[in-house]
Amino acid sequence: MADSILLGHAPRPTDGAQLAKRIRTLVIAAEPAGIACTSIIDAELDGADIARLHLDLTDFILAGEVDRDRARLEPQGAAVSSESAVLRHLTVKASPMRVSGAEVTLDAQLNDLPFRWIETDNRELAVELARPSNEHPLHGHALVSVPKHQLGAAVLALTESSLLDMGVSVSKLELDVEALGPRSLRFTVDGKVRKGLLGASVHGSATASIDDRMGVTLTDIKLESGNPIVAALLAATRGRIQGYEGRRIDVAAELPEGIRLADVQVRVTDEVIVEARLV
């Protein structure tokens, strides 16, 4: 059952305390085994609707793909009934939580999220979040920050399985971000990669600027290697990469339906801080 999250056995909870208890079980299943759950969860129901849900995920550790207890995260049965509802106000905070080895600070508020209560043929209860649409767009704002020195390790952890599927392993990835202004960033990447018997260091850099209409323009794009063989391979793709030089990417148009960015601000100190507002 796609996009469904298991919440125990049917029927659905009838008060906020029951719902909070079920969500706590879900949080425990999403953490590595043996980790004590310290998350604070508070909920209020109004009939089928969730009037308010507050999650404080401070010290939460998101388990890796292998460690997650999928038997307690995803329903196994087929849906036999459903009931439409709305999550009117969702607040998620973390100061911080750990995702792929990075300490992520999060402060998000979202309003009016449609979803469905699902019952399966083996008496499971699940929630299925509706995809945002132009008729029901996401509303709210979010702030996410990550220590700058942890960015490389976090990106590597998130992309490692995809790279391995392509036969590429990365032994080192250092990612640096420099703020050139409130909407302009300079990225530099240094990594050590291996594909088969061929290993090399790779260096890349680019500047990204965000305009008032949520368009991103990339400039000063560079990708090179000290290994002459790898450098030759990179040269073969350089033309395609350089095709992005000075080209404006309409991020707002590329976003899924129902997600409309009104504003994005980026600050860089010892942390990379991104603030976004949805309308």
Structure report:
- The chain is an alpha+beta fold.
- 18% of the residues lie in helices and 52% in strands.
- The protein has two domains: 4-130, no CATH class; 149-278, no CATH class.
- Strands 1, 2, 3, 4, 5, 6, 7, 13 and 14 form a nine-stranded mixed beta sheet that branches.
- This is DUF2993 domain-containing protein.
- It comes from Agrococcus citreus.
Which labels suit this protein?
single chain, 279 residues, alpha+beta, 9-stranded mixed beta sheet, 5-stranded antiparallel beta sheet, 14 strands
What's the topology here?
Blueprint: E1 4-9, H1 16-30, E2 40-46, E3 49-56, E4 79-99, E5 102-120, E6 124-129, E7 139-147, H2 151-165, E8 168-181, E9 184-195, E10 198-210, E11 215-225, H3 228-242, E12 248-250, H4 251-254, E13 261-268, E14 271-278
Parallel strand pairs: 3-4
Antiparallel strand pairs: 1-6, 2-3, 4-5, 5-6, 5-7, 7-14, 8-9, 9-10, 10-11, 11-12, 13-14
SS summary, helix count: 4
Q: What is the element string, with H for helices and E for strands?
A: EHEEEEEEHEEEEHEHEE
How much helix is in the residues? 10-25%
- Report the mean per-residue pLDDT as an integer: 86
Strand content: over 45%
Termini gap: 29 Å
How would a crystallographer describe the biggest sheet? 9 strands, mixed
Taken from the alpha-carbon principal axes, the silhouette is globular
Radius of gyration: 22 Å
Low-pLDDT runs of 5+ residues are: none
The helix-and-strand class reads alpha+beta
Secondary structure tally: strands? 14
Number of individual domains: 2
